[in-house]
Amino acid sequence: MNIRLHIHACAPGQCLPLLPPAALDAACCPGHGLLAPEPWALPRLDVGTSLHGACGTPLFQITGRIWLPTPPTGESLPAAHCPLLTALADLPAGPLELAPRKEGLSLAWVTLSDKGSRGQREDLSGPAIAAAVGAALPLCHCQGFLLPDEPAELRALLTDLALNQGYDLICTTGGTGLSPRDVTPQVTAALLDVPLPGFTQAMLAASLAKTPHAVISRAAAGVLGRSIVVNLPGSRKAVVENLAAVLPALPHALAKLRGDPADCGG
């Protein structure tokens, strides 16, 4: 289904929300105005979705979603959870019809580190996730996040990334051991709809082949909404080793999660 909107003039890299008519009329914030279809009839616009023009050129990419603020007038409006459109070209203001298309997978990596969040330690593991996954899978969007080892913040972020933003794959790094501040596995496990014990077993086997200390890992993995969430260790080396154990299965797992009807056997 194509969507029609009245775009705000924008330059490459500029990010503005796609506003439903009521929000646009109330001038909550600058943005692109949705003309058709009705907001409730919009196709699913997960992070990584591109919006293509008439000639097939991608003009925008969905890079997030936001809740709209209440208008300054105090006018009451239905809650609106709006896609964020990042422009891929110089675009003048005016009406435009666009075709949504998702080509590739979206990855969010989350580094858990008290020192890292305070700027006292360089994050090497998060970028290592992006590099390893990007080398093995076709990525359309990749975004990193750095958090302290705080359960409430991790819980909120994982929920948002999976259920609101619609990332395909969410990898955490750090917080899987026995230190008092290591909370990643218990927070993750409490959120999962379906656990994936095969993932954790494969990662544990890969780690045990390198070090006996791997036995203390409590990493969790599973499905949250339509996303696969995987806990990885904190060290860059262990991140690469663990990912190598599960990356070959990820395309098949994600396809099945999205309803691929093909038979699994040969």
Automatic annotation (TrEMBL):
Protein's pathway: Cofactor biosynthesis; molybdopterin biosynthesis
One of the protein's GO biological processes: Mo-molybdopterin cofactor biosynthetic process
Gene3D superfamilies: MoaB/Mog-like domain
Domain MoaB/Mog: 108-253
InterPro entries reported for this sequence: MoaB/Mog-like_dom_sf, MoaB/Mog_dom, MPT_Adenylyltrnsfr/MoaC-Rel
Entry keywords, A to Z: Molybdenum cofactor biosynthesis
Record protein name field: Molybdenum cofactor synthesis domain-containing protein
